[in-house]
Structure prediction request, 379 residues.
Amino acid sequence: MPPKNSPPIETFISLVERDIDVFHRDLHCGKFHFHTNLAPSEKLALDQLSADKTLVVKPADEGGAIVIMDRTDYMEEAYRQLNDSDIYRATSQNPLNSIAQKIKILLEFHEQEGTIDSKLRTFLTKTDPITPIFYLLPKIHKRLFKPPGHPIVSLTDSILSPPAIVLEKILTPLVNATSSFILDTNEFLGLIRALGTIPSSSLLVTWDVSSLYTSITHEKGILAVDRLLNEAGTHVKIRRFCMDLLNLVLRENYFMFEDTFYIQQQGTAMGSHVAPPYAIAYMSSFEKDFVYTHPLFQTHSRIWRRYIDDIFCIWDGPVDSLISFDKHLNNVWPELKFTLQFNMDWISFLDTLICKNDGESLDFTILTTLGTILASISR
Prediction:
């Protein structure tokens, strides 16, 4: 079974669930009386927005803002992405029954092999699953008018959710141990503090991998995960079980948009539990083969750290050597594209602004949401 890693958190969850149950019971018994805190004009405005079918209301991809979009623009962007036949394929039938049968056969085999027990098999068998739904989060930090959309597939309580959860629990500690891994902003800032002074000529560099989650071909992603499990010394039966689950989660990933079912043929769905460790394993494998072994990297890179698809680097070399290395990164695999940013004095990374003090030591500022947008615009 997926481990419950933190007893205090599990206790807190249990207490919250208990209090919610008590609240619902008391609410149905008429113990509570509510009064709106909205002015009539505010309530009318919200009701009108909710009833207006020409609008789509979604949270922004970054920053926590609420975005009200013209429905025509939203649908145009959604179909622009879904019509990419390399990534998505429309299907005339609901594939749920077919996927359920494949899961049943896979679990029966691994239970007979002794790889899993009946308890884990029960966890991996989802009864009454929901249909995954595709939607977009507007990237207003990229463009305010007709913003591009970040594709999300809501997989919670879907038939592929339990296998993705098990894979996440197995892969996460392995990818956390990879050499370029950054857990969060606090860990990144600890690395910056530990660097001390750097040469005044050093370049502050970031790369962003464009649409990483939908760019990973199944073949390369599966090989990267198999490599990760192999290098970690995972038992051959567990390794085979993981690869069988991963193939299922990737190749049978389906969802609905409007009245049409789709199969995702490349990449992994944002919203799947396994998506982050899968993407990290893929990038780690890429780095081992095409980054760490490159002569320019070995000569000029002082530090290279990555948060999923965002890379921070300090480059102790001339600009032309950095440009040459960037061309190398973008020429390895056609589906993998890197966007380079660099500056002598400052660079934004995650939600921080990294600056040189007196041209040598590094300092940082935690950016607010507005600051992050302004920094992005200024670049």
The two ends are 46 Å apart (CA to CA). The CA atoms of residues 12 and 132 lie 29 Å apart.
